[in-house]
Amino acid sequence: MSPAFGAMEVEHYSKGVLLEPFVHQVGGHSCVLRFNDKTICKPLIQREHQFYETLPTEMRKFTPQYEGVVSVSFEEDEDGNLCLIAYPLNGDHDKLENLDNSDCEPKSKLLRWANKKTMLLENEKISKEWVRQHRKEEKMKNHKLEEEFEWLKKSEVLYYTVEKKGNVSSQFKHHNPWSMKCHQQQLQRMKENAKHRNQYKFILLENLTSRYEVPCVLDLKMGTRQHGDDASEEKKANQIRKCQQSTSAVIGVRVCGMQVYQAGTGQLMFMNKYHGRKLSVQGFKEALYQFFHNGKYLRRELFESVIKKLTELKSVLEKQESYRFYSSSLLIIYDGKERQEVAVDSDPEDLEDLSEESSDESAGAYAYKPTASTVDVRMIDFAHTTCKYYGEDSVVHEGQDTGYVFGLQNLIDIIKEIRDESSE
């Protein structure tokens, strides 16, 4: 980046960048916002910030890239639209010169993505059920925002039809109900505190979905224990109960959220954490199968890459002394874009590694050839992470995080089972 161009970008950014919903958030309760195509941001939690600042080198490939801190304000435009605007922290202009802000929306171009009358994206083509339910909830006075979204808990697995017009990825962004839930909770919290506080620190992180046209995302809560060392007795009891009543206690992992594109029907399938908590071990396995199935066929070509990366991560974590990743999640991401069709009578080199569907007579004159698929495996959410290097922690653990490693091994074993059973 040239000095002149860098200065121009910082000036553009210093005017304030409108933060938009990050539509590929499928789990968690902390609000994640889109800064630009390649960067997201979330409220700064000191412990998580410290983790990223002191991250062991060998773990960096398994976590999002940390890109700094911004100041975020809660504002209203002249039409009463509620907006979150990011500004550089004092003295941080040099750091921000390295960020690609070319697609950021400046404050002067505020989008009406959070109108306070509807709390929905303007012109968003959302299902009639969403709109009808939201309007009904809006009429109820003195209800907490969590109660306004009680229907989400009742609709734990949702299917939304993606419009056939235009590119699939261009139609993808207005359909994720969980991201909207987290957004509206964050706006409500900041609105309630606006009179007392209107400057918040957010950390900037790599957008792990940016390289995928149609990201399929699986959010897994890892480990046999979820509460941090500093949790209150009430919080501790609540987290222990959730683990005992889910697959966390049995296999050290549970589904926290899922987003899968169904190529067979042109729909998006969402599974939330409430459904994930109810799954048995067999149900967990079936959910994993569903994550790797696009409605037409199983994405078998993904298995080896996922298993390899999970095994490598397990090896890295086994060497981490004193770390405990309580309530941390693991993301598995791949592109749901449908594979290219190739003619059966094509050049032999073009038909290497044809999936089993190609041998089926029903495949006709065409067969699916797996393209070079990339799968990402990353750890996220470190608000309750502890380590002996965090000097202020009263509890110091020794050795590896056995609960997390236990969950990883079981996850690897289950994916291998799905792979082996599907090839029989």
Automatic annotation (TrEMBL):
Keywords: ATP-binding, Kinase, Nucleotide-binding, Transferase
Family the UniProt entry places it in: Belongs to the inositol phosphokinase (IPK) family.
A GO biological-process term: inositol phosphate biosynthetic process
Protein name from the UniProt record: Kinase
InterPro entries: IPK, IPK_sf
Gene Ontology cellular-component annotations: cytoplasm; nucleus
A GO MF label: inositol hexakisphosphate kinase activity
One Pfam family recorded for the sequence: IPK
E.C. no: 2.7.-.-
The organism's taxonomic lineage, starting at the top: Eukaryota, Metazoa, Chordata, Craniata, Vertebrata
Organism (species): Nyctibius bracteatus (Rufous potoo)
Enzymatic class: transferase
